[in-house]
C-alpha cells in the first residue's frame, strides 16, 4: 500500500506541479495580458492626447474664424457708412454742378460780350456828359446870354 500511497502521493505531487505549471503559464499569460493592456492603455492615452490637441486646434480655428468674421463685419459696416457719406457728397456735388450750369446758362455768352464791347467802343461813354456838367453848361450859357 505504501506504493499506492507513494503513487498517490506522486499524483498529488504531479497535480500540485501541474497547478504550479498552470499557475506559471497563467502568470505568463497574465503578464502578457498586462503588457498588452499597458500597450493599449498607452496607445489610448496617446490617442486621447492627439484628440485633445486636435480639438484645441479646432477650437482655436473656430475662435479665429469668428473673430475674423466679426472684424470683417465691422469693416463692412465702416465701408457701408463711408459709401453712404460718399453718396451724399456726390449728391451735393451734382446739385452744385447743376446750380453752376444754370448760373452759367444765365450769364452772357462770349459773343454777347463782344457785341456789347463793340457798342461801347462805338458810343464811347467816357465822352458822354453828366447831368451835372449839362447843368453847369446851361447855367453858363444862361449867364452869357443875359450879359
Shape: rod-shaped
Q: State the end-to-end distance.
A: 204 Å
Give start-end ranges of low-pLDDT stretches: 1-11
Work out the radius of gyration: 60 Å
Beta-strand percentage range: under 5%
N-to-C SSE string, H for helix and E for strand: HHH
Number of strands: 0
What structural class should be given to the helix and strand makeup?
Answer: mainly alpha
- So how many helices? 3
Largest sheet: none
Please, what is the average pLDDT? 85
Assign a percent range to the helix content: over 70%
Task: Describe what you observe in this structure.
The protein is mainly α. The chain has a domain at 2-89. It is built from 3 helices and no strands. The protein has helices spanning 2-106, 110-123, 131-146. The longest helix is centred in the middle third of the chain and has 105 residues, at 2-106. It is rod-shaped, with a radius of gyration of 60 Å.
Summarize the structure.
With 147 residues, this protein is mainly alpha-helical. The protein has three helices and no strands.
Amino acid at each position: 500500500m505504501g506504493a499506492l500511497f507513494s503513487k498517490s502521493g506522486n499524483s498529488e505531487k504531479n497535480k500540485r506541479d501541474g497547478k504550479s505549471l498552470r499557475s506559471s503559464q497563467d502568470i505568463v499569460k497574465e503578464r502578457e495580458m498586462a503588457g498588452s493592456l499597458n500597450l493599449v492603455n498607452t496607445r489610448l492615452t496617446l490617442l486621447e492626447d492627439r484628440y485633445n490637441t486636435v480639438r484645441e486646434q479646432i477650437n482655436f480655428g473656430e475662435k479665429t474664424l469668428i473673430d475674423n468674421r466679426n472684424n470683417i463685419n465691422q469693416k463692412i459696416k465702416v465701408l457701408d457708412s463711408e459709401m453712404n457719406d460718399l453718396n451724399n457728397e456726390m449728391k451735393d456735388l451734382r446739385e452744385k454742378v447743376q446750380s453752376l450750369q444754370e448760373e452759367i446758362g444765365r450769364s452772357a455768352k462770349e459773343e454777347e460780350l463782344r457785341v456789347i464791347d463793340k457798342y461801347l467802343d462805338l458810343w464811347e461813354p467816357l465822352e458822354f456828359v453828366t447831368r451835372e456838367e449839362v447843368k453847369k453848361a446851361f447855367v453858363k450859357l444862361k449867364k452869357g446870354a443875359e450879359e
